Structures are given as structure tokens and as C-alpha cells.
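Lab meeting minutes (informal)
Scribe: AK
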Amino acid sequence: MPAILNVTFLSTNNHNNVMGNARGTIGRICRWHDETNQVARRMAVALLRAQSGFRRISGHQQLGELAAALARP
């Protein structure tokens, strides 16, 4: 893995940011109805709202190299 991406993915800040935004959207919901698949729908809305705060990660140019390395057996 390229060094810049390694540093980026070792940090948990990206994950915490997404989960914090999701908690803000779905945090006060008390009842989840399985028959209407509300969990998936609410999480999709939360992620779409969080998307506006995303920034480009450092080393994004090297993501192609990472994908190729992961595809190798």
C-alpha cells in the first residue's frame, strides 16, 4: 500500500466522522420496523447527509494502485 494511503487508512477519524453524522440523523429513533426495512433506509439517508461533509483523502491518486494490489491473488 502506498505510504500516504497507509497513513490515511490507519486513522479512525474518517470512520468516526461518518458514524457521528449517522448518529445525529438516526440517534433519536426508538422503534425500527423490520417489514419496511427502515434500518437500511434511515442509514442511507444518514450517509447521504454525511456525504456533504466528506473531503478528498490524502493520496487519492494512488487508489488505483491499491485496487490493483487487492485484486491480485
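Next up, CB showed the second protein from the same session:
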Amino acid sequence: MTRAEKLMPLIYAELHRIAKSYMRRERDGHTLQTSALVKRSIRSPD
């Protein structure tokens, strides 16, 4: 297993924690979910 493969779960968990904190401050009824926000942030550029 590469270093990147080992680190990815840790990075994902930390980003998810941060995103959850930000999403709590969003208005009621917003549609973006925490997991979607994290996935968008780590998606590779095309």
C-alpha cells in the first residue's frame, strides 16, 4: 500500500470533520451534504 493510500482515509476523516463544522452554520434547508462537499474538495482536476 502506498503512502497516499494509507493517508487518504485520515485526510478524508479530517476534511469531513471540518466540513461538518461549517455545514452546521449553514441556513436550514441547504441541499449540499457533508460527504459531497468533502468529495468535491478532494476530487482530482480533469
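CB comment: The first helix runs from residue 3 to 24.
No objections, moving on.
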